[in-house]
């Protein structure tokens, strides 16, 4: 009579190694943009496709430090795990990371004017992702992020209320975001698009980023 052999129990060390290996593998295949958007303070950003970020037309004339621009673009469009060169010291790697974030932010400020970008930001606005106006008379009016300058490093992001038309400071989690990443004119652009489509508090249109007229709803 054959005796079945009891499978050898794997040690916790072996399990941990496999788990860590799986996590490392996932990180290797995750893009820098995907990793950046997973951060809690990145929920105000639209998801910019790599195809948009890699198009030279969309990145022309960006105001970034040219010393690290090439490495930053490689990091932005490549793997989020390790795109640094051995020739860079830790300070240079920090600068590359900062430049990558700046490039993404400036690309984002352009992307949110595209049909799909407006669509994403409208959904965030509709859901109150950016917060509500603190004024009682505004009735919890949803806010929109806005920059006071289109030049990076000048001003942090503010919040605009379409009801009282006042500006407010961002919450603690988002208060250090660069206002240039959201543009000076985006709130007014979005509100104008909504006005053109005759949107109001009682209307709830079917949204799409692929409508025939190129808008983000129909």
From TrEMBL:
<feature type="region of interest" description="Disordered">
    <location>
        <begin position="1"/>
        <end position="26"/>
    </location>
</feature>
<protein>
    <recommendedName>
        <fullName>Casein kinase II subunit beta</fullName>
    </recommendedName>
</protein>
<comment type="subunit">
    <text>Tetramer of two alpha and two beta subunits.</text>
</comment>
<dbReference type="GO" id="GO:0005956">
    <property type="term" value="C:protein kinase CK2 complex"/>
</dbReference>
<dbReference type="GO" id="GO:0019887">
    <property type="term" value="F:protein kinase regulator activity"/>
</dbReference>
<dbReference type="GO" id="GO:0016301">
    <property type="term" value="F:kinase activity"/>
</dbReference>
<dbReference type="InterPro" id="IPR000704">
    <property type="entry name" value="Casein_kinase_II_reg-sub"/>
</dbReference>
<comment type="similarity">
    <text>Belongs to the casein kinase 2 subunit beta family.</text>
</comment>
<dbReference type="InterPro" id="IPR016149">
    <property type="entry name" value="Casein_kin_II_reg-sub_N"/>
</dbReference>
<feature type="compositionally biased region" description="Basic residues">
    <location>
        <begin position="1"/>
        <end position="12"/>
    </location>
</feature>
<dbReference type="GO" id="GO:0005737">
    <property type="term" value="C:cytoplasm"/>
</dbReference>
<dbReference type="Pfam" id="PF01214">
    <property type="entry name" value="CK_II_beta"/>
</dbReference>
<dbReference type="InterPro" id="IPR035991">
    <property type="entry name" value="Casein_kinase_II_beta-like"/>
</dbReference>
